[in-house]
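Hi R.,

Here's the chain you asked about this morning:
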Amino acid sequence: MLSEEKIKEIYCMLAGKVTNYLIASGMDHASACDITQECFIRLWKKRELFHENDSVSGFIFTVAKNLQIDHYRKNKFIAFQDDWQNEACDFMEQPLSGDDLSYLRSRVRRALSELSESQRDAYTLFQIAGRSIKEIARITGVSESNVKIRIHRAREKLSILLQDLY
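And the predicted structure, written out as tokens:
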């Protein structure tokens, strides 16, 4: 059974990645945070199913994806919100102005929305959530080679759609 300390450690390690994955998949920040919290509540309720050394990231991301689908079914809309975290541009020497940041966010949102759902899921799980190919295959229910193909195609399409930003 997972201890309270181990669940806290897992939360600190994965909560930001799950939230970023959900935001990159098109959710607004508040909904992504709510779903992230629900993922860890479900982990807490099922803690007796896991051992201290088990990897639970696959469980967490699968729950997050399923809760996201339920959210869209209940609300009957899918809309990308301009509520991404400002930390996305921390790597830049000079911070962007509000207008520049809004422009970049809208361009990235549009580019991500041009991907097929399967490509977007694989790409955001890999690139934004930091999941391994093996974990993504388990979460999405496809082979590892299929995951690699989806990520590769997503990268190709994004590089074409965003080439003027380079």
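Residues 4-24 form the longest helix (21 residues).

Let me know if you need anything else.
M.
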